[in-house]
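Hello support,

Our group uses your service weekly, and this is the first time we've seen a run hang past the timeout. The protein is ElaA protein. I'm not sure whether the cause is the sequence or the server load. Input pasted verbatim:
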Amino acid sequence: MDYQLDWRFQTFDELTTTELYAILRLRSEVFVREQRCCYLDADNKDQRSHHVSGYRDGELMAFSRIVPPGLSYEYPAIGRIVVSPKGRGAGYGIELLNVSIQKLEELYGNVPIRIGAQLYLKRFYESFGFRQSGDVYLEDAIEHIEMTRPNQ
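Update from on-call engineer: The timeout came from a worker crash unrelated to the input. Re-ran successfully.
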């Protein structure tokens, strides 16, 4: 695959303070400011997760974290999936999911993958093989569903 973004795959300890700041800023910009969710983003899972960051010209455009099995769910998970408003419409979300799934499989092999998805993105995640695996629930007044991607 030919990617448009410069991808970095790092443990928490490998992140520089500048990279960590960019990640937290992007997550806050989208999840707190844009989506108006009042929640504690710093949930003590980042330290045990791997971080997938996509940069364009030195600016963070896309991010996710790969959460190990047992920390959020029974299976490894991809979470905090976010694309910068500046990068929307450029295919970065597709790149991000492809890279995130690839990196998760490098870490854990061909295993089921779990996500907690905003309901309006259900079809997007289904295009990657995820299927709804739980009832609709409200998180910060936004409808979510658990989705699982079985072994491929």
